[in-house]
Structures are given as structure tokens and as C-alpha cells.
Amino acid sequence: MSTTRQIGDLGEQMAADYLTRQGYTIIARNYYAAHNEIDIIARYEAYICFVEVKTRRTSEAAKYGRPAAAVSYTKQKRLIAAAEKYLRQNPGCGQPRLDVIEVYLPDGIPEPERAERIVHMPGAFYRR
Questions:
Q1: What is the rounded CA–CA span in Å between residue 78 and residue 74?
Q2: Are 79 and 68 in contact (CB under 8 A)?
Q3: What is the per-residue pLDDT for 46?
Q4: pLDDT number for residue 1
Q5: How crowded is residue 37: how many other Cβ atoms within 10 Å of its Cβ?
């Protein structure tokens, strides 16, 4: 497990599994709207959740900071644009919410089977 894309894919799968265990229904993965992508779209109670997943090895988080810090204002604007397009295509699908999930992978394991830690931040940001 060495490429950034492979680590990202693994983190997204772990996040989707986590959400499912928490009672969320996964609606879509890797939804594209123009050049913007939403990692996971899920339903939870009255919410339609647009989830950005950020994955890092534990040692990388210690060196570079929390994965959620990588969700810049520019990235947030792109996610909001993609979410708005989804909502236009699927009116009445629920109250929108923008979440971030941090996935921390253990160090030294080439292909970990589970995350060391998952942090879910419901409503992590909003349209300004």
C-alpha cells in the first residue's frame, strides 16, 4: 500500500463501512459534478450527507497535522458546488449536511485491515 490513491481508496472504504455501521445508507461513492468530486453521499435520518474523507498514516498526521486541515476553503467551495448540483438533480432528498471523516491508518502495515482511528465531524463546514 504505497500510492496516495490506494491509501485514499482504502480510507474511503473504511469510512463507508463506518457510516454503514452507524446506521447511514450509502447513496453514492465518488460522485462527480463537472471537475468536483464528493467521496461519499449518504442518508441518515432526515439528512443527506456529503462526506469528504481524508486519510493519513498516524505518523503523517503527527508531522503534517490533522487530515481535516487539508479541506481548505477552496476545497469546501468545490464540495458545496458538487453538493448543490446533486441537490438540483435530486430535489427533496433530505436536509443537506457537509461532513468530514478523518481516517488514521496504523504505521508500518502495508495493507491494514482496519483503521487505527476514525473521526467523524458531522456538519464540519457550511455554505457561507
A1: 6
A2: no
A3: 95
A4: 44
A5: 14
DSSP notation for 22-67: TT-EEEEEEEEETTEEEEEEEEETTEEEEEEEEEEEHHHHHHH--G
- Tens of pLDDT, residues 17-52: 999 999 999 999 999 987 899 999 999 999 999 999
Please tell me whether residue 89 adopts helix, strand or coil conformation: helix
Question: Residue 2: what pLDDT?
Answer: 58
Give ∠ CA 24-26-31 in degrees, rounded to 5.
140
In terms of phi and psi (left: phi > 0; alpha: psi -120 to 50; beta: otherwise), the region of 58 is alpha
For the chain, the residue count is 128
Helix (H) or strand (E) holding 4: helix 4-21
DSSP-derived letter for residue 68 is G
**pTM of the model as a whole:** 0.91
- Which H helix or E strand runs over 105? strand 95-105
Q: Which three cell numbers stand for residue 41?
A: 453521499
